Amino acid sequence: MSRFCISICVISVALIVGFLSSLPPHTHWIPANSLPPKYVWTAGFALLSTVDSVLRALTPPNLYMFKELMGYLHTVEIYSAAELRVADAIASYTEIYFPRGGSSHSAGVPIRALGLAIAPGCESAPPNSPGDCMAVSRRLSRLLRALSAYGVFRELPAGSDSWVNTPSSTFLLEAHPYSLRPAALNFGRTQYTMMERLPESIVTGDAAFKQVHGGEFWGWYKEHPVEHAIFDGTMNALGKLGAADLAIARDFLWGQEADTVVDVGGGTGEMAAEVLRSCPVPPKRAIIFDMPDVIKRSQEVWSGNESRAGSAHLQNLLKEHPNLSFRVSHAPGDMFSHTTIPIPSTASTRYAYMLRDILHDWADEECVKILRSLRTAIKGSPQSSVAVVARMIVPGAGFIKSLGSTDADIVMMGAFGTTAGERTKEQYEELFKEAGLALHSVTPTRSQYFILLAKVANQ
Question: How many whole angstroms separate alpha carbon 36 and alpha carbon 247?
């Protein structure tokens, strides 16, 4: 009987794996930036983790290692498509020649047309020269075939060398409200070269970024406005990845913890807007707290001045919910200085200071300084708290369940060196303890983020 059960289990797993592996690479069952019910989220990731474990177990270790080593090519290939604006070229051709969407369903854009789009002068190049349109198209075709192997772009019909966008490649469109094109450019240029010096960073503690680019992370970006704009676009895109903002807003009852949420380092206030709009128990109001120049830009965005607009998503939120602006105020200051931090007006006033993706930029010493400043700000308000929103590392979670937190940790080490990066629960507890705070609760969300709530210790 036991052998029969084992046989049934093996056959069932084989059938499931066989079915999943037979799906075309461009297949996606879950819409982008959707927030599934909690039971679907939990069951889905349990299934993904199981399938990932089975596929890994069925792959010889040397072949598995080689596959992982080849991952660098995916970054370079996607970066190249983003730099050449291939997705936009496909979309533009389709809109012009097939305004009713015919090519997106029945036939792709010919490779010759795409070659001309990425190299407009190729028509005048000498025949059979490297710059000739035919030669450009052949090289582009090789890139698209490589990308289509894992679902980025699709040849339609197969073998025709005509191409359409897929659900994945549409996120390389520059005008997409959740575009990942800035991330592709940032990862393929600045971060890719940064990681060349990761071994030295591990040994010495010096930031790989500074070794490669010759300047501190934030200072270098200020001196390179084009790359800075790409970096800002990357941060906006990653903040919405997998409906993270929505998950943070909905999976924690902010209004039960506080009357006012102070978005520390909140930028233009997209996270604050989402908390006010989407939380099942929302706070009464929010304060966007950041450096003076950032606050000036944020105030212009919230006042409707689109000449200095924030993201398209924030613009849409403010248009759809104009009353949000009446519940938001701005406060310029420095999170390292408690004298500039907004404080509760009375002992019974409840503030929650939200630090979303803030502490991972800083070494332990600076994190303690930030947390101490916040502790000083709330010491007269026993019901106030500090809410760290972060990708918490869970040891032994594996790639799927970790949701990229360990990779994000490596990026932070490369960018800032020393002890900057993502942290475990125990490491956060130690930071809180040194700052005079105590961990009160840890709330997972339907995203890569956890919410670690801390309050003044011994109060």
Answer: 10
